[in-house]
Amino acid sequence: MAIVLFVSFVILLFIGIPIGYAIGLSSLITIFTTNLGPLSMVLQRTYGTLNSYTMLAIPFFILAGNLMTVGGLSRKMVNFANFLVGRLRGGIAQVSIVSSMIFAGVSGSGAADTSAIGSMLLPTMKDLGYKEGWSAALVAASGTMGPIIPPSMIMIVYGSMAGVSIGGMFLGGAIPGVLMGLALMGVVVIYSYRPGYEFLSPKNTKFKVGNKKAIIADGIMCLITPLIIIAGIVFGVFTATEGGAISAVYAFVIGAFVYKELKLKDLSKVIIDSAVTTGVVLLVTGLAGAFGWILTYFGFPNMVANYLVGITTNQTLMLLMIVAFMLLLTCFVETMPAVIMMQPIFYQIGVALNYDPIYLGVVVCMAAFIGTITPPVGVLLYVASSVAKISLGELLKYIPAFLAAIVFVTILVVFIPSLVTFLPHLLLNR
Questions:
Q1: Is the pLDDT of residue 360 over 80?
Q2: CA angle 329, 13, 326 (to 5 degrees)
Q3: CA 420, CA 178: separation in Å to the nearest integer?
Q4: pLDDT, tens digit, 9 for 90 and up, residues 246-255
Q5: Nearest CA-CA partner of 148 in 310, 364, 418, 2
Q6: CA angle, corner 84, sides to 208 and 224, nearest 5?
Q7: Contact 246, 229 (CB under 8 A)
Q8: Of the candidates 13, 6, 12, 5, which has an alpha carbon nearest to the alpha carbon of residue 377?
Q9: Euclidean distance between CA atoms 37 and 60, whole angstroms
């Protein structure tokens, strides 16, 4: 009877019901029409999904990202990125990519990455004559690195639900995340040689050396957080939740007492914004967990896994099918619920074909987050267009080249598993 769940879910999405409510309502409808149990089962399974110590990491990382933005650390990251790559072809465009890579090592959120970096750099890019739609497309595409470069909220959720080492997934996402950044930087260089993109000329840059020692010191201070968090989680010094708490405390101390830009009056807004974001994320996560439980109850994951394994047992071909499926699904369903709902199916496929669970999890997360820059759902597209104050259509005409770069890296990872497994095997023997 899983058909009831899917049909009701699609209908609710089609009539414009928000994704979280569509997931919950379709679960209620299925339980009611199939006599699966009392309607309170949805609440019980939602609570069961969220009743995990690991899930506490999510609000801490969200809070850390907001504290860094308000406390001035985000601007220091941009200055450091400017120092590193500001002289390259593309100037400030390259700076935005590297800034996103650094910020991704703190927030673990693509939306936070896009919003923070976009707010700081899009006005500057506009002043330098950059095409607004092109700049917004670049910032949106750069935001996809947020959930891949560790730490990552989606990896925390996936690892918690699938029983996969979160530290292992963090390590597994490091090389692919950096490759995504390098691929986007390559796209910028290619654009810089095209007619009509003279604004990417090396001469058109706002690079200033300033105080080198201060810039480097600020950069190191910003990089300490992700390094401590990742090393601590990977080597078992503390859990992902404790790592999130440490990052929030560090961001507060640096913003309030070192840079002295985080004021007492700012804290209430930071906490409220973080609480609202956390509420939205956890509501969708919990309801998606209930949705996934219903699928499992009806044996849908086993059925789909057996069907797909019947088509092919080739690991590479199966992964390409999974990537294609997630690309299609995330065009219509937001990334977090899509991954949570499909996780039971991927788990069964992983068991059937003997995938490295860390490798499979990283590939699924990479494929899913491509959907954040594909319409109609693509949340990063809306964030970037909103920050840039332009129409979505103006941004969309420039997104294909950046999208192609992200897809290329994902396919590269499918064909070269060691890009994911190298660091976990080296440091964790997994």
A1: yes
A2: 5
A3: 11
A4: 888 888 888 8
A5: 364
A6: 115
A7: yes
A8: 13
A9: 35
Distance CA 381, CA 250 (A): 30
Sign of CA dihedral 11, 17, 19, 25: negative
Cis check: omega of the bond before 38, within 30 degrees of 0: no
C-alpha separations of 422 from 182, 323, 416 in Å: 19, 21, 10
Cα-based angle 97, 156, 61 (whole degrees, multiple of 5): 60
Cis peptide before 195 (omega within 30 of 0): no
CA atoms within 13 A on the CB side of 351: 12
B/e letters for 217-239, b = 16+ CB within 10 Å, e = fewer, are ebbebbeebbebbbebbbeeebb
| For residues 261-285, average pLDDT | 86
Under a CB-based contact definition with an 8 Å cutoff, are residues 141 and 399 in contact?
A: yes
User: Helical H runs in 193-314?
Assistant: 212-234, 240-253, 264-297, 300-311
How far apart are the C-alpha atoms of 292 and 132, rounded to whole Å?
40
CB 370 within 8 A of CB 406: yes
The token duo for 221 is: 């201070």
Here the tokens at position 87 are 């002289």
Given a contact cutoff of 8 angstroms between Cβ atoms, the answer to whether 20 and 284 are in contact is yes
When pLDDT is averaged across residues 384-405 and rounded to a whole number, the result is 90
Q: Nearest-CA neighbor of 99 among 405, 89, 112?
A: 112
Model pTM? 0.84
User: Which secondary-structure segment (H or E) carries 345?
Assistant: helix 335-353
If DSSP codes are grouped into helix, strand and coil, which group holds residue 311? helix
Q: Which residue has the higher pLDDT, 109 or 142?
A: 142
Tokens representing 223 are: 């990089």
Q: Please give the average per-residue pLDDT across 218-242, as a whole number.
A: 78
Please write the tens of the pLDDT for every residue from 169-217.
Answer: 999 999 999 999 999 999 999 998 888 887 777 665 555 656 677 778 8
In the predicted structure, residue 155 carries a pLDDT above the cut 60:
yes
Q: What is the pLDDT of residues 407-421, one digit of tens each?
A: 999 999 999 999 999
Packing angle, helices 212-234 and 240-253, rounded to 10:
160
What's the burial of 250, exposed, middle or buried (CB within 10 Å: 0-12/13-18/19+)?
Answer: buried
Query: In b/e form, how buried is each residue of 11-24, taking b as 16+ CB within 10 angstroms?
Result: ebbeeebebbebbb
SS3 163: coil
Average pLDDT of the residues of the chain: 84
